[in-house]
Every structure is written in C-alpha cells, then in structure tokens.
Amino acid sequence: MIKHLLVAVRVTLVSVAIFGFIYPLFMTGVAQLVFPWQANGSLVTASGRVVGSAIIGQLWTQPQYFHGRPSAAGSGYDPTQTGGTNLAPSSKKLIDTTRATIARLERENPDGTYPACEAHCAPPMDLVTSSASGIDPDISPDGAYYQAARIARARHLELARIYAVIAAHEQGRTFGLLGEPRVNVLELNLALEALR
Amino acid sequence: MTLTGWAQTLVFFLIVLAMTKPLGLYMAGIFEGERTFLSPVLEPVELLVYRLGGVRQDEEMTWASYALALLAFSVVGFLYLYLVLRTQQWLPFNPQHVGNMSPELAFNTAISFLTNTNWQFYSGETAMSYFAQMAGLAWHNFVSAAAGIAVAIAVVRGVVRSSCKTLGNFWVDLTRSCLYVLLPIAIVFGLFLVWQGVPQNFNDYRTVRSVSGFVQHITGGPMASQEVIKELGTNGGGFVNANSASPNENPTPLSDLVEMLLIFSIGSGLTYTYGRMAKDTRQGWALFGAMAILFFAGFAATYAAEAAGNPLVHHIGVAGGNMEGKECRFGVSASALFATVTTDTSCGAVNAMHDSFMPLGGLVPLVNMQLGEVIFGGAGSGLYGMIAFVVLTVFIAGLMVGRTPELLGKKIERREVQFALLAILVTPILVLVPTAIAVLVPAGVATLGNAGPHGFSEILYAFSSTNANNGSAFAGLGPNGFYYLMTATNMFFGRFAVIIAVLALAGALAGKKAAPAGAGTFTTNSGVFVGLLIGVILIVGALTFLPADVLGPVAEHLALMNGRTF
C-alpha cells in the first residue's frame, strides 16, 4: 500500500500538470487564436459599445422592447446566479406564479396574437414558464409575434414592420431537425433600435 | 410528441451506433498495448508519465493490488482537491477573488468529484476559482473517468483470461485511458464547443450595460475545456450552476447533440471493446442491444410525459408541452432526450431542470439511476455494472434450465454470484436506507424545495443520484450538514463498494479454466439472452424500488391528475 501511495502522489503531480494546466492553457491558446469572438463570450456591440452577449439573455421590461421569459436567476437574468425555479409541476407556488404571469402578459398585450392562433390568444407556453438557466437568450417565434402589437404601439410603427423584424431573425431547427425554432431577444431589440 | 422530436432522437442513436465499432476497436487496441496512429505524438508523453510517476510498465497486478492502487490514487486525489478548495483564495487564476470553501462543503465536493459523481452543493460562478475549476475539478473529470475505464478493462480481462491471477496494471490502464482515449477527443470536441459559442478564457467577469439600461455581468473562464471532459467522462459537474442548460455551457442545438454523443460514446464503445477482447463481437452487441432497448423505452416515457404537459397549467389557459425549467433552443424533445441520456449513463449534466419535469417525466431519470446506470452507463462503470448483471442473468438462466451456468466457457459458481450480487445490492441498500433516515429526521426534510410527494421525490432522487455516481439533482433540495455528510458517504460507497466487488469478481473469473462451449451451453450472445438480461435488470429494479417510486412520482402524478397542488 505504501508503494502504491508513493506512485499515486507522483502520478497525481504529473497528471495535474498535463490535464490541469497544459491542456486547458493549450485549449485557451488555440481557442483565442481560432475563435476569439466565441472564446471571449460572444460579445455584441451596438453604436460602438458592448451591450451584451449574443448567447446570454437580458431582462427587458419597457414596452418598446421584446421581453424574454420569466427568469429565476438572481433578480432576473443574472449570469452569476443561473438556475431555474426548481418548482414541481404540482407546486401551488408554481401555479400561482404562472397565473399571475399570464394575467400580466394579457394586460400588457391586450391584442397579442400569433399565426397559429385565432380570436383571443393566450400567451404562448414559453412566455409563462421560467427557463432552466434563467438566462435563456431566446423566445419562441409565437412569443415574439404575441408581443408585436404592443411594440408597434409603443414605437408608433406599423405592425408589419415589427413582423418583418421577427421574420428576419427567426432561427429554424438546426438542419431542420435539432432543437426548436426560436428568436434571439437581444438581436430582435437591437434590430428594433436600428429601425428609426 | 412530434415526428421531428422522434427523428432527432433516431438520428442521435444512429450516430451512436455508427461510432460504437470504430471507438470500441480503437479502445481495444489501446488496452491490448497496440500502437495507434496517435502513438508517435503520445508515446513520449506516456513514457514520461511512467518515468516521473515511478510506474513499472510491465508489472501485472492481482485484483486486490489493482483495487489498492486505485484506492491509493483516490486517497491522494481526495486530499489534493480538498486542499485546493480550502486554499483557492490564495492560489492564482482567481480574477473574481473567490473565497476559500468551507470544510464541510469542500469535503462533500472533493468526494463528489473523486467518485465521478459531480453532485454539486455549490454554484460554480460564485464558489469556484478558475484554478479550482481547471486544475481541481477538470483534472478529476479526466482521472476519475479514466479510473472507471481502467476498472472496466480489468473486469473484461478477468472475464476473458483463463487460469490467470492478474488483471493488468492500474497505472498503465489509467494513463492510457487519459492520454489515448480522453485527451484527443477532448481537444477536438472542446474546440468544436468553442466554435459553437462556449467561452474559453481567463477573463474577469465583464460588466455590460444594454440598450435598455439593464446591467449584467458576463461570466467567463476556461469553460469549453472542462465542458467537453465533463460530458465525455460522464462526470456531469457544471462549470456554472445551470450546467448544460446554461447557454455558456451549451449554446446551440448542435452543441447539445455533440454533448449527448460525448456522454454515450465511451459507454457504447466499450461494449464493442468487450466483444473484441472476448474474441466474439456478438457478446458486445448483445449488451449494446439490451442497452439500446432500455434507452428507447426510457426516452419514449419521458418524452410522452413532457410533451403532454402540465394539466394544471392547461387549466389556467395556456396550452402546450411542459416548458417550465426548459430552454427555448432545446424545447421539450431535446430536453427529454438529454435527461434520458444523462441518467442512462452516470453523467448527470442537465440541459433542463429535472425538478420541474412532470412526475412521470422525472420518474424515468430516477429509475435509470436506480437500475444502476447500466444503459451505456458511466465511463467504464456502465460496462462493469452490466457485467455484474450478466453474471446474475447467466446464473438465473442456469437455475431455470438446470445446468451449471457458464460465461464465455467459465463456470459461474457460488463465489462469482456472491460478488455480482454484492455489486448489484449496493444500490438498493444505499438508496433506500438513507432515504428512510432522511424522512425520519428533521434535518432531512428541512431543506426541501417542494412539498407533498414531490418533496419525497427530491430526497429519493438525491440518494439515487449520489449512489449511482450520477450527480444530477432535483435541485430544489438545499444543502445542510445532514446532506453534506449523507450524500458524501453515499457517493463514496456507491463508487468503491461496487468497484471492489466487480474487481473481486474479475479476479475469481480470471483464475478459472475456460472450457469449450458444448451443445448444452446457454449462449450469452443471442436475442434470448438480451431479453433475459433486460428482464433481470428490470425485475431487480422494479422489485426493489417500486414502493418508493410509488410514494414519490406516482403519487404526485395521481394527485396532479386530480387537480391537487401542494
């Protein structure tokens, strides 16, 4: 056992050097060289300054912007406190919160609608549920269309122009197969800012 | 459920199927000491490790010596990580000035990474320095996975060798797993993940102000290099709290697919390695077949439950599948698939919050872990767990037909069955007894995140996960002294009691003579055997865990269908 322990100490030191230092430093070097934008957090600039990350969602509350999903990350969309609500489907708190979210969304979007819906439209599922990370950058296309009328009103723009922005930024499934169709909320809002 | 959702899973599975043989063949070569196309680059490093490590390359070990070497390595690895976590404040690569970890949390975390579990009672973004992440946790991700693979290979040698006392050399198997199997894949797919958007830097968290005036801190770190080995080594410990649900760790549907493939790769490849080393590849495909059937059954059940959605939410006016705790880019189907994959294996990374799954959607991950993670399974641990089930199945089949049971020409006798049963019984004992204790003491129910039957599910899930060295969680369960101690104990014995039992089994098998198969031999490479094997796995699981699972997820499902909330 003593013999094994001595080898264990030495193998630990050598392998920490290889896999704990050389490997991650090598990867960082290559990544910074080949994919510097992604390696540094996919930062997005608008009018000359960094306004966020293309892959990290943000908290939007003003009526003239597209809003993201409810977030359980800190006080909302805090990348240093990621996570979901972890509430059970049978949780009273979950159902009460969801009910309140639906009521708020219907108040904010009295004329909210989306292609698949006729007459009165309830908000789409993704807008009333909290994401897993709390920093989900996307909403469903339905979730974007649902908010379009409110944004058009707040910005004094024609609804068709808002629809055009959504259509231009819709991402389909990867290879038509993987994941779900979605739109990146920061992208949408930056496009809105560029409209005027 | 949609056609696209199923097509995605089918494509995923076909890729797994396609890579099983090449990877398995490659690994068989590695562990039979052959040179490979990477040898010109890696052999000098390998020899350097042996020289600096004081490893005698050609020394063969008995099962006991093999186990002792692994234990010695584990003791040192535990002390090393504990020390790093307790002193990270003063170590370099700490731009966020993260403080030292408390003794009880450092203890729990060190055991957790040592055992390939990666159960996390901390949040990576605030509790870990970059030093601790890369040189502490990611290092363990490599070596704990490699140790698992080493044990699996030793067990295979026990099955295929005859009249032999030894199972190989632990240090050589460990080193070759790390260098030839894990490292090349990690480099290639780590860079792939960076391309998809996973950060790889040593930057300070960056404060940004959006066009709306909203301020947030963009986190950083050497994430991709850790993310890739976290999946490949079926470790599962997230760089950040939200794990692979975070867009930092898993930014796109394509990165999601690759991460799932990495999780299954070693487990599926090793089935072929087993067949190859047994000189009968159908032996390996039989195990693969049993695993594949159980995988599809699990996915179908989870997907159906999640796609059906929450009737309580439908009742208040919103239709659709269950999106609580799921990401838009993955949706219901990719989340159900990831949850199945991560719990079939002992990975435990998550791309959605299992705590918010529908009761029956969450039941599948729970059952997968309770079956002992043998559906492709952890890096190495899946194969050696499955071989224990194979021995038990052969024994039961022998009893049914009244012949002496055999595995690859070797008689399975009392000693072999005892060791196999020991390996299999670790799971129910270490899941059910601590769960019973937890519901009886105040500390056990003090930190539950949910009430009613779901609260019980959180406890049951915690012990199923830590015992199976999975590490995924019904994360509403909060930490306290009771859980620090109980889960750490559980992870430790869940790992090492099983390893010692299967190594002892391998030692016993290696010493036996192999007789040629006769007309009365019950073959272990046929469809009948696959069916029997699945039957034994399910019966052992169902008999042992059914009552507990009924009290948790099934009770919650029935209550929920009747409109009850808690």
Structure description:
The complex is a heterodimer of chains A (196) and B (566). By secondary structure, chain A is mostly helical. Chain A has two domains: 2-36; 41-195, no CATH class. Chain A has seven helices and five strands. Chain A has helices at residues 2-34, 36-39, 92-108, 125-128, 141-155, 159-169, 185-195; strands spanning 43-46, 49-53, 138-139, 170-171, 182-184. In chain A, a hairpin with a 2-residue loop joins strand 1 (43-46) and strand 2 (49-53). The longest helix of chain A is centred in the N-terminal third of the chain and has 33 residues, at 2-34. In chain B, the strands form three sheets. In chain B, strands 1-2 form a two-stranded antiparallel sheet. A two-stranded antiparallel sheet of chain B has the order 3-4. Chain B has a two-stranded antiparallel ribbon with strand order 5-6. Chain B is mainly α and 566 residues long. The mean pLDDT of chain B is 96. Chain B has two domains: 19-279, no CATH class; 379-561, no CATH class. The chains are: A mainly alpha (196), B mainly alpha (566).
Number of domains of chain A: 2
Order of helices and strands of chain B: HHEHHHHEHEEHHHHHHHEEHHHHH
Largest beta sheet of chain A, briefly? Answer: 3 strands, antiparallel
Low-confidence stretches of chain A: none
Instruction: Report the total helices of chain B.
Output: 19
What gyration radius of chain B follows from the Cα positions, in whole Å?
Answer: 23 Å
- Helix fraction of chain B by DSSP (H/I, runs of at least 4): 55-70%
Determine the oligomeric state from the structure.
heterodimer
Helix content of chain A: 40-55%
Strand content of chain B: under 5%
The class by helix and strand makeup of chain B works out as mainly alpha
Shape of chain B: globular
How does the helix and strand content of chain A classify structurally? mainly alpha
